[in-house]
Amino acid sequence: MDSTQTSPKASAKPAQEDLDKMLSELKNSMISYMKSAEPPYTMDDIDSCEKILKVYLVDINASQNKEQGMEMVKTTVVNLNALNGKTEGTLIETSEREKIAEIIILASSRKGYNTIDEDITEEWREW
């Protein structure tokens, strides 16, 4: 292998760091909005959203096949639906919806379960 090529193992870590960065940006955006607009959600709700997505990222990475992966997508989206319902639909607004869907879709596409243009959250998503 020459110096311009990277092994699959070498590229896996930056891919995870990319997803972690996206998740961090989502959280920071939610916190910023919470401070400026005083919506009916709390820091606990933001932390719950982050936890749901972190669990998803670990689980999808460990999944063995597309069927298992899609079940994880469904569980994640249903959990986010419940959390968003608890906050009167204010936690996940347009920009958050786009960021969350991007995280879910990107992580699953990296496993080869879908294309990056395929919205695998739509079937269950209420946000």
Describe the structure.
With 127 residues, the chain is mainly alpha-helical. It has one domain. The chain is built from four helices and no strands. Helix 1 runs antiparallel to helix 2 and helix 1 packs antiparallel against helix 4. The longest helix has 30 residues.
Any idea how many domains? 1
Number of helices: 4
The dominant shape is globular
CA-to-CA gap between the ends? 45 Å
The string of secondary-structure elements, in order, is HHHH
Structural class: mainly alpha
Q: How helical, in percent, are the residues?
A: 55-70%
Beta content: under 5%
The radius of gyration computed from the alpha-carbon positions, rounded to a whole number of angstroms, is: 16 Å
Q: Provide the low-confidence segments as ranges.
A: 1-11
